[in-house]
Write a structure and sequence with these properties.
Distance between the termini: 84 Å
Helix content: 25-40%
Strand content: 15-25%
Largest sheet: 7 strands, antiparallel
Number of strands: 7
Structural class: alpha+beta
Length: 177
Amino acid sequence: MEQNKWMWLSGVLIVGLIIGYSLKGTTAVAPSAQDNQPSPVSQTTDKPSEGFTLHIDAEKHFPADVKKIAHHYCKQVKSGMTECQLYDSDDKDAKLAGVEVVVSTDTWKGFNKAEQKYWHYHKDEIPKVNAKLPDLSEEEAAKVAESLTETYGKIYLLWDPAKTDQPVGQPSLNIID
């Protein structure tokens, strides 16, 4: 009887450990205070989702409210392009609302006329959208703004967060005049 009791308790302990171990990796998205191990979500590796560190705030990106700020988080990618993720705020749980692709003037000139009409010239656009680089000093921001003046951007809106807080509606290209 005593031996059966210990076998039963050992079995329960082993099953509990297996269940606890398997749940630990799938339910938590933040480091555990007990084990100090980063979660799989927070580990840094070389992935395409990393490196969007240039923060640019700009108006006139959301048609329902031209004063609503589009928070761009940008990085350079292959072929000299820059890609920006557009969010409805700069809060940690902000919603992705669009993407802007940025190319050089030479790349833009290689597009046919039909394609060129979907792009905006940053030299004209930057002053119109009240662009700010909140994470940089004034001097650094001026250098970045200058480097962007001879580029073109194309904005893909997934939805308009100035119209609704839900990701509904037809995705669109936003052409800034």
